[in-house]
């Protein structure tokens, strides 16, 4: 079992930045790949970014095309945290952001990001 707790959402003006953090705990096997999804209720759910580990133990990352160049994902192993850095935010980035692990088996409670 994996537990995920997101933090860092809020209200920001267009062009601003926010940093989302996901504290990951539990089964280490389920923690190797962690992703961020976002959802606009009733409309769509998108995969935003993901971070995994290759066979050599190095981090590999995926960034969704619609946020490429603006968002980055990283892992702080010392803090068991995955960070989504969001820059140059746009109104269309407004959504509920979820941290997801072990494929899509485990989801955090979500954190709201609103861009005005």
Keywords:
globular; about 120 residues; mainly beta; 11 strands; single chain; four-stranded antiparallel β-sheet; seven-stranded mixed β-sheet
Provide mean pLDDT, rounded.
92
- H-E order: EEEEEEEEEEE
Stretches where pLDDT is under 50 for at least 5 consecutive residues are none
What structural class should be given to the helix and strand makeup?
Answer: mainly beta
First-residue to last-residue Cα separation: 37 Å
Query: How much beta, percentage-wise?
Result: over 45%
Number of helices: 0
- Gyration radius (Cα, Å) is 13 Å
- The helicity comes to under 10%
Overall geometry: globular
Number of strands: 11
Main beta sheet: 7 strands, mixed
Task: Outline the fold blueprint.
Blueprint: E1 2-7, E2 10-12, E3 18-26, E4 34-40, E5 44-53, E6 59-63, E7 71-76, E8 81-86, E9 95-101, E10 106-107, E11 111-115
């Amino acid at each position: 079992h994996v537990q995920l707790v997101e933090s860092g959402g809020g209200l920001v003006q267009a062009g601003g930045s926010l940093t989302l953090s996901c504290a990951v705990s539990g089964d280490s096997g389920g923690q190797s790949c962690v992703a961020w999804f976002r959802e606009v209720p009733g409309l769509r759910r998108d995969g935003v970014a993901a971070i995994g580990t290759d066979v050599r133990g190095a981090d590999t990352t995926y960034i969704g095309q619609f946020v490429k160049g603006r968002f980055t994902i990283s892992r702080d192993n010392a803090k068991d945290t995955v960070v989504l850095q969001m820059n140059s935010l746009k109104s269309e980035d407004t959504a509920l952001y979820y941290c997801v692990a072990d494929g899509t088996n485990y989801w955090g409670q979500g954190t709201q990001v609103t861009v005005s």
